[in-house]
Amino acid sequence: MSNQASNYQLFSTDILVLWRSQNVSYIKVEELSVVNGVTFFELIPDSELLDEGGIDTLYPIDSEDVEDMIVFNRHIKFVVHDIYLDED
After folding, report:
1. Rounded to the nearest 10 degrees, how much is the dihedral formed by the CA atoms of 46, 81, 86, 10?
2. Domain of life here (predicted)?
3. Where are the chain's structural domains?
């Protein structure tokens, strides 16, 4: 993830507010990588959930689970790729 780190931001209240203003309905969570004991999960707004049998999960944007992703955890980081942060 270190080579890609500049393309990602930690999930934050600002991102959540932006997505709500853009009428995002749900967020897909995909495991991205594990680096030095920290598991990184990528958050993807309004993505389709593919039935791959993997560990991808969808959460409604207004769920407590999504708000909990903002809370600091030293072993888990929720990140958002810059392409999902356009303010159009």
Report:
1. 100
2. Bacteria
3. 5-84
Whose tokens are 């909990």? That residue is 68
Per DSSP, the residues of 10-60 read E--HHHHHHHHHTT--EEEEEEEEEETTEEEEEEEET-----SSSS-EEEE
**Quick one: tokens of 38?**
């920290």
Find the length of the chain: 88
Task: Report pTM.
Answer: 0.83
Distance between CA 17 and CA 4 in Å, rounded? 24
Tokens (6 digits) for 75: 């072993």
Q: What are the tens digits of pLDDT across the range 3-57?
A: 556 799 999 999 999 999 999 999 999 999 999 999 999 999 997 655 555 556 8
